[in-house]
Amino acid sequence: MAGVKKPLIFVCLLWSACAALTAAAAPDATAAPAAPAAPVAPLGDQALQGLTQTAADFALQTATAAVGAQAGAKIETQAGAIDSRLKLASCTRVQPYLPAGQRAWGATRIGLRCVDGVVAWNISLPVTVKVFAPTLVTTSALPAGTVLDSSHLRLQTTDQAAAASPAVAALPLALGRTLSRTLAAGQALHQGDLKKRHWFAIGDAVRVLAVGPGFSVSGEGVALSPGLEGQPVRVRTESGRTVNGVAVGERRVEVLL
Fold first, then answer.
1. How far apart are CA 57 and CA 160, in angstroms?
2. DSSP sequence for 97-155
3. Amino acid 208: pLDDT
């Protein structure tokens, strides 16, 4: 019997330990159940309308800064509604911004992102920007190739943002220029409607203006490609370095740093 007692004692001890572990692992029937996570409240209709207004206001501010002090300019903006299928969480602070590749002009998009909220979200809204200002319009239908004179044009208020190309608003900027396409009577004149001027040829000496934040430096160079108005051009500077710029005038190149 002495040889039997030790195994029995070991089994009893093991059984007691298992029972203790089981009791410790078992949930306490008296403990309160864990509270479920509170649902994130979605934005209501009034808040969504506020986001739409935020996008429109931001587009207005941005377009106003771009237009500057243009005489007689009146800017209007209208933002589209937020997709009703989106359930946006409440947000303390929403930041409007221009998405990459967009500008506050014509049919565009304005981004809205939550920068202070329980859930981060980022959306964009369609926005239409209209810029009403005096613009040169044609007095009659004009075929492509027409060399413009004062009888061809008159000033009239139009939506300059209706076209991507900048509008021409001053008569001296149009006189002597050649139309690159046919325009109907009363049609607004834009820079894209005019043939590009040939400012210089390959090998011509040019003036190079390097522009950076708060400074500008000028020097001489030699054109390595034709200088068409507003088009990219390569120039070899006096130091022998090749730089890329834009043809901006008669034998003038601007390089942005």
1. 19
2. EPPTT--SSEEEEEEEEEEEESS--EEEEEEEEEEEEEEEEESS-B-TTPBP-GGGEEE
3. 95
Residue that is written with structure tokens 């492509």 in the block? 144
Question: Tokens at residue 64, please?
Answer: 């106003």
Burial class from Cβ neighbours inside 10 Å (0-12, 13-18, 19+) for residue 161 reads buried
Closest CA to 221 of 257, 251, 256: 251
Residue 257: partners with Cβ closer than 8 Å, 6 or more residues away: 210, 211, 212
- Model confidence pLDDT, tens digit, residues 109-134: 999 999 998 899 999 999 999 999 99
CB 135 within 8 A of CB 160: yes
pLDDT in tens, 188-206: 999 999 998 899 999 999 9
What is the Cα–Cα distance from 149 to 151, expressed in whole angstroms? 6
Number of Cβ within 10 Å of residue 248's Cβ equals 15
Distance CA 254, CA 257 (A): 10
